């Protein structure tokens, strides 16, 4: 076993509501082909040790520590495991990175979610690898192509904001038609 920092990602689903993103940064038992070399799955409970340890885990954009969205230490990132995978809920900051991510999520242009980790317990069998325990360092919103399918990210937008946006769009269309 190696103690190498690794990154993994997955595709997403989207819904809108407020300045929050929520979903799954990793899903259990979903095979992913990693760098065309091996198939990897994550076992239920793989993140439990990191979550119990109370370690400060970051939410980033594309694994870039210069684009922090949230963190567990401040309470702006909440992580948990359930039967599906590593669930997250984060408060999107009013920063350039936060506004960009929220706008892309609302349009459905986000590639997926990812996570950075060090494998603590893994089982290998030929070209298959099962992650049984990992030290979680960060989760990331991935703008391009993630490794794992099945992760979920949801942007939650308030109904009043959506109604206001619809009204503004109608007004702009009317103004365009009257020119």
TrEMBL record:
InterPro entries according to UniProt:
Peptidase_S78_dom, Prohead_protease
Q: Does the keyword tRNA-binding apply?
A: no
Species whose genome carries this gene: Pannonibacter tanglangensis
Asked if Protease is a keyword of the record, the answer is yes
The record's Pfam families line, in alphabetical order, gives:
Peptidase_S78 (PF04586)
What is the protein's name according to its record?
A: HK97 family phage prohead protease
Keywords of this entry: Hydrolase, Protease, Viral release from host cell
Q: Which GO terms describe its biological process?
A: proteolysis
């Amino acid at each position: 076993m190696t103690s190498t920092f690794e990154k993994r990602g997955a595709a997403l689903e989207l819904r809108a509501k407020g300045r929050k993103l929520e979903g799954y940064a990793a899903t259990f038992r979903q095979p992913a082909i990693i760098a065309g070399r091996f198939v990897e799955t994550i076992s239920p409970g793989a993140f439990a040790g990191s979550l119990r340890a109370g370690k400060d885990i970051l939410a980033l954009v594309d694994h870039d520590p210069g684009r922090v969205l949230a963190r567990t230490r401040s309470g702006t990132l909440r992580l948990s495991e359930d039967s599906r995978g590593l669930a997250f809920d984060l408060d999107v900051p009013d920063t350039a990175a936060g506004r960009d991510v929220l706008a892309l999520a609302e349009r459905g242009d986000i590639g997926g979610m990812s996570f950075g980790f060090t494998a603590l317990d893994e089982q290998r069998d030929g070209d298959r690898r099962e992650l049984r325990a990992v030290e979680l360092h960060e989760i990331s919103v991935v703008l391009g192509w993630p490794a794992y399918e099945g992760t979920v990210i949801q942007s939650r937008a308030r109904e009043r904001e959506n109604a206001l946006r619809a009204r503004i769009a109608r007004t702009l269309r009317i103004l365009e038609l009257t020119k």
